[in-house]
Amino acid sequence: MSHFEVIGGALHAENVPLARIAEQVGTPVYVYSTEAFREAARAFRKGLEPVGRHHVAFAVKANPNLAVLRLLANEGFGADVVSGGELSRALAAGIPAHDVVFSGVGKTRKELHQALDAGIGQFNLELEEEGVVLAEIARSRGMTAPAALRVNPDVDAGTHEKISTGKAENKFGLPIDQAPAIFDRLAKLEGINLRGVAVHIGSQLLSLDPLEAAFERVGRLVAELRAAGHAITHVDLGGGLGVAYKPGDVPPTSAAFGEMVARVTRDWDVELMFEPGRHISADAGVLLTEVLWVKPGVTNPWVVVDAAMNDLARVALYDAWHGFASVTPDGGTMVANVAGPVCESSDVFLKNREIDRVKSGDLAVLQSAGAYGATMASTYNSRALVPEVLVSGDRFEVVAGRITAETIMGAEQIPDWLEP
Ligand SMILES: Cc1ncc(COP(=O)(O)O)c(C=O)c1O
Ligand SMILES: N[C@@H](CCCC[NH3+])C(=O)O
């Protein structure tokens, strides 16, 4: 069920009227529902019940808010991190280091040291040289790093090209046909315990077919590696499950995903890892905004809101679709464009769409904004960094405060050799 519902004519997050949050915190602001995260997390885990031994690591990039990570840790989720910053967040939120997997195509030596210090559960290696360097660093410190090879299965995920990661031309993973030879060489090194493989073909997948094709290729690779004498004990199947952003989107359910995984991996005899991000978090958040003006347009009016592309970048980056709804819907509709105040023509959330009727001063939400929302925000146009609020029942708490243009300006300096 949705935890953002109209109750008594006004949109609520759980039992809190969004108008109250706007009044106390201001807008724009991200509002998250604790129950929505929990429900998605539990459904995902339940979907995996038919699957053998496994762990779930939340893809921190989707929503790195500490409170969110804590609540997911309480649901038994580890963390999939892609930077030292995300690793620090996962640990600060109370996620045990051994439940952290470190992905990413450009880990720095400093980050490898940091992750070794922390004692993380697994490094997903993206290239042979990274494995050599990791082994060297670990050896020099008398440690052994648990690692897997991330392979690129050359499968089209059927998603937006900018969030596709499993085609041969993408920068991610190493070509699956080169994996056996590279595995052979890296497995001989002291300092790493190369024990498995990893795959992640893209994000916002609305079909299970490309995932199944990729997993089957990985299954054949596991068999080939075992035939070559390697002990393969871990396979990381990544994330990627989509959500319904627009009417007509039918994402795979957690149950359908679990059933497919159980079928494909039945004979693998490994510990599986999953790295969902969006599927757990997108529908747990909205971006609450105020309508500043309704400006006449050539064909349709421009609804100018106080949220902008710097707060929610997905539309400008991927032509993404987010639902737009009034906080006080009166049943009327209008055909309009919705745009933010930023000085870019790409700062448009939607065009020529039928939306709830709104006027200046009304509050509205951009829906399904709990994933890749606040985390991708910037201060472009010297706007404040958007705050985040977490709701639980009838209470709410600011879980990330407003960093203003003045805060940022205060952290800058003008060299004294620049004359006033
Ligand atoms: C390696 C890896 N794991 C997990 C994810 C999470 O993806 P999603 O939010 O689509 O589940 C990503 C992002 O696409 C990723 O690159
Ligand atoms: N930021 C992207 C998803 C990227 C997935 C990370 N590999 C989005 O908002 O859809």
UniProtKB/TrEMBL annotation:
<keyword id="KW-0663">Pyridoxal phosphate</keyword>
<comment type="similarity">
    <text>Belongs to the Orn/Lys/Arg decarboxylase class-II family. LysA subfamily.</text>
</comment>
<dbReference type="Pfam" id="PF02784">
    <property type="entry name" value="Orn_Arg_deC_N"/>
</dbReference>
<keyword id="KW-0457">Lysine biosynthesis</keyword>
<dbReference type="InterPro" id="IPR022643">
    <property type="entry name" value="De-COase2_C"/>
</dbReference>
<feature type="binding site">
    <location>
        <position position="318"/>
    </location>
    <ligand>
        <name>substrate</name>
    </ligand>
</feature>
<feature type="binding site">
    <location>
        <position position="372"/>
    </location>
    <ligand>
        <name>substrate</name>
    </ligand>
</feature>
<comment type="function">
    <text>Specifically catalyzes the decarboxylation of meso-diaminopimelate (meso-DAP) to L-lysine.</text>
</comment>
<dbReference type="GO" id="GO:0009089">
    <property type="term" value="P:lysine biosynthetic process via diaminopimelate"/>
</dbReference>
<keyword id="KW-0028">Amino-acid biosynthesis</keyword>
<feature type="modified residue" description="N6-(pyridoxal phosphate)lysine">
    <location>
        <position position="61"/>
    </location>
</feature>
<feature type="binding site">
    <location>
        <position position="344"/>
    </location>
    <ligand>
        <name>substrate</name>
    </ligand>
</feature>
<dbReference type="InterPro" id="IPR022653">
    <property type="entry name" value="De-COase2_pyr-phos_BS"/>
</dbReference>
<keyword id="KW-0456">Lyase</keyword>
<feature type="domain" description="Orn/DAP/Arg decarboxylase 2 N-terminal">
    <location>
        <begin position="38"/>
        <end position="282"/>
    </location>
</feature>
<feature type="binding site">
    <location>
        <position position="240"/>
    </location>
    <ligand>
        <name>pyridoxal 5'-phosphate</name>
    </ligand>
</feature>
<feature type="binding site">
    <location>
        <position position="372"/>
    </location>
    <ligand>
        <name>pyridoxal 5'-phosphate</name>
    </ligand>
</feature>
<keyword id="KW-0210">Decarboxylase</keyword>
<dbReference type="InterPro" id="IPR029066">
    <property type="entry name" value="PLP-binding_barrel"/>
</dbReference>
<dbReference type="InterPro" id="IPR009006">
    <property type="entry name" value="Ala_racemase/Decarboxylase_C"/>
</dbReference>
<dbReference type="InterPro" id="IPR000183">
    <property type="entry name" value="Orn/DAP/Arg_de-COase"/>
</dbReference>
<dbReference type="GO" id="GO:0030170">
    <property type="term" value="F:pyridoxal phosphate binding"/>
</dbReference>
<feature type="domain" description="Orn/DAP/Arg decarboxylase 2 C-terminal">
    <location>
        <begin position="30"/>
        <end position="370"/>
    </location>
</feature>
<feature type="binding site">
    <location>
        <begin position="275"/>
        <end position="278"/>
    </location>
    <ligand>
        <name>pyridoxal 5'-phosphate</name>
    </ligand>
</feature>
<feature type="binding site">
    <location>
        <position position="314"/>
    </location>
    <ligand>
        <name>substrate</name>
    </ligand>
</feature>
<protein>
    <recommendedName>
        <fullName>Diaminopimelate decarboxylase</fullName>
        <ecNumber>4.1.1.20</ecNumber>
    </recommendedName>
</protein>
<feature type="binding site">
    <location>
        <position position="278"/>
    </location>
    <ligand>
        <name>substrate</name>
    </ligand>
</feature>
<comment type="pathway">
    <text>Amino-acid biosynthesis; L-lysine biosynthesis via DAP pathway; L-lysine from DL-2,6-diaminopimelate: step 1/1.</text>
</comment>
<dbReference type="Pfam" id="PF00278">
    <property type="entry name" value="Orn_DAP_Arg_deC"/>
</dbReference>
<dbReference type="InterPro" id="IPR002986">
    <property type="entry name" value="DAP_deCOOHase_LysA"/>
</dbReference>
<dbReference type="InterPro" id="IPR022644">
    <property type="entry name" value="De-COase2_N"/>
</dbReference>
<dbReference type="GO" id="GO:0008836">
    <property type="term" value="F:diaminopimelate decarboxylase activity"/>
</dbReference>
<comment type="subunit">
    <text>Homodimer.</text>
</comment>
<feature type="active site" description="Proton donor">
    <location>
        <position position="343"/>
    </location>
</feature>
